[in-house]
Automatic annotation (TrEMBL):
It is found in: Cell membrane. The chain crosses the membrane at residues 12-37. It comes from Peptoniphilus harei ACS-146-V-Sch2b. One of its GO terms (cellular component) is plasma membrane. This is Sodium pump decarboxylase, gamma subunit. It holds the Pfam family OAD_gamma. GO terms for molecular function: sodium ion transmembrane transporter activity. It comes from the Bacteria. The lineage of its organism: Bacteria, Bacillati, Bacillota, Tissierellia, Tissierellales. GO terms for biological process: sodium ion export across plasma membrane.
Amino acid sequence: MLGDVSLTLGQAFGVALTGLSVVFLALISLLIAIVVITKIVGGIQGKEDSAKANQGAQKASPKAAKPVDNSMDPALLAAIVGAISMEERSRVESFRIVSINEKK
């Protein structure tokens, strides 16, 4: 069926260009869909996180603040805060670390 079809060089480039454009348009549409879904899910989860934070703030009673021990390495502290932020999928401003205890 396709064996007897002959294309000129210009037609062959046109077919190749059409195929490439279809593939890249599909990839761009997938990228847009992923971005939109991420924004929607992030917005929903952000609302839930803020509602939980508000409930926790209302239940917590104010206590006297203990003196802060700044002897921990700042790079290690930044790594811990980043790991917690990634695990909770929330912004750093949405939680507070009260203490860090090293297990031996």
